[in-house]
Amino acid sequence: LASHIALEEAEADFEAVRIDTAKGEQKTADYLKINPKGRVPALVDGNFIVTENPAILRYVAVTHPDKELWPAEPWGEARCAEWLAFLSSGVHPSYAHIRRAERYATTEEGRRDVVETGRRATREIYQMVEEKLSAIRNGWAAGDGYSVADPYLLVFWTWGAGSVLGYDMEGDFPNW
Length: 176
What we know:
flat, mainly alpha, 7 helices
């Protein structure tokens, strides 16, 4: 979703292709030619393929500089990179422990423990995001305006409000 939003914001010429992960389409031979990791998203630009949200978001931003999706000032640039790294390495994995416990445990008891631990960790991580956002005075995650960090944050806000986590995002995380 974040990469798709960034492409829309960049007014890029692109074709979105839905990969149904519930049906395992990311593991098909055709998709594995695009991304051998068997994960989404992937962006194909001619003969160039880039995977992983942070890399795709950065690529979209730098290939559409007129849209100013990546902050120009050093502190904003660093903050944007920091957000992308934290969201992909901290927030996303905590959610995956709840949503895909079978990746982390082989027994039913082990999976229950992974989910329970993931729920506690995810709540703590969401609170960290909330605290970081509470210090921002201009309403944007990084820099002086909208950047690719903002739609990436939106993805996790949506996941927080969804049925898996069921958070009261507006009540519990008002700055987010």
